[in-house]
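Researcher: Go.
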Amino acid sequence: MVHPGTGDEVWFNQADGFHPSALDPATYAELMRLCGSEEDFRLTVQFGDGTPILAEDLAAVRQVIRTEARPHAWQQGDVLVLDNILTAHGRRPFSGPRLIATAMT
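Model: Structure:
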């Protein structure tokens, strides 16, 4: 996709998270039992022409995302603003007390 404001080519989708290969084995097995096929999962992805995306291809995408990730080191009072199209973002596991408020425009 081309960013509408900057003209940059961007990776703007969630194939890496919604592909069945992102599931843990127990969840995958349960969904297969309930649905019968990956195509019937509530969340799944494929190419625009219906061709399956190989798990190996999504593994390579996930590796690039891990390599290029730049975690924010939160400090009290921080406000983080990002462009939802230009910036891939996500969450990492966390434990302990915290309060994070999110607003989208």
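Model: The mean pLDDT is 87.
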